[in-house]
Design a protein that fits this description.
Elements (H helix, E strand, L loop, with lengths): L2 H18 L11 E10 L3 E13 L4 E15 L4 E20 L2 E19 L7 E19 L4 E12 L2 E15 L2 E10 L4 E11 L1
Antiparallel strand pairs: 1-2, 1-10, 2-3, 3-4, 4-5, 5-6, 6-7, 7-8, 8-9, 9-10
């Protein structure tokens, strides 16, 4: 069975558990804002930028998700020089279910829109080609929020991404450390095998 099939089974199991919902999760916040550095390290491209994300706990088990990032790309396979900016928008939602007082199972689905603009130059060509394109698709995520310590949370995760002509499954981990009341610092690294790509995030979160 391929990764897409495994992720579909995991997402179905998550939804089945959410439909039972005997007790709401406590101890984890699903209403927050966060912002910070984001980056991509891959065989075909490198990029760095800034990102902001919002989660709103609409009910005891459902949250609404939205995000925006702006990336500056300075490397791309097949080009001698690259000056491209990528604006990425996401919106969607998800659900969460309490396994124990210290573990939540979380599932999400978001729509993705990526807009790329800029210039790139082929080797041996003095002229630069204009880059102007839009890709659309979706991401499905399954994760487990684990309260490892009173101030430390670890979240192993899996993400299936299908955007434009690109699709792949990535696996990663979140680490969230609360340093003052509702303030915490969050780091994430998610690896996608097809392009040997690692998506990175490091920023500050505020629970509302």
């Amino acid at each position: 069975m391929n990764n897409k099939g495994l992720l579909a089974i995991a997402a179905s199991a998550c939804l089945a558990m959410l439909s039972q919902a005997p007790v709401s999760a406590k101890g984890f916040s699903y209403t927050y804002v966060e912002g910070g550095y984001t980056g991509v390290r891959a065989d075909s491209a490198d990029a760095d930028g800034l990102a902001a994300n919002l989660s709103f706990g609409a009910t005891d088990y459902i949250m609404v998700l939205a995000g925006y990032s702006h990336l500056w790309q300075d490397k791309a396979e097949g080009f001698s020089s690259v000056d491209v900016q990528v604006d990425r928008f996401t919106i969607g939602g998800g659900g969460h279910y309490s396994i124990t007082d210290r573990i939540d199972l979380v599932g999400s689905v978001v729509y993705v829109n990526e807009q790329s603009t800029g210039k790139a130059k082929y080797p041996g060509d003095d002229s630069k080609s204009r880059i102007n394109g839009t890709r659309e698709g979706y991401e499905i995520g399954v994760s487990g929020r684990i309260r490892a310590m009173d101030k430390l949370e670890l979240t192993p995760l899996a993400v299936y991404r299908n955007v434009g002509d690109y699709s792949d499954t990535g696996f990663g981990v979140d680490a969230i450390y609360t340093f003052y009341k509702d303030w915490s610092v969050r780091g994430n690294a998610t690896y996608f095998n097809d392009d040997s790509a690692t998506n990175l995030f490091l920023g500050v979160r505020y629970d509302l």
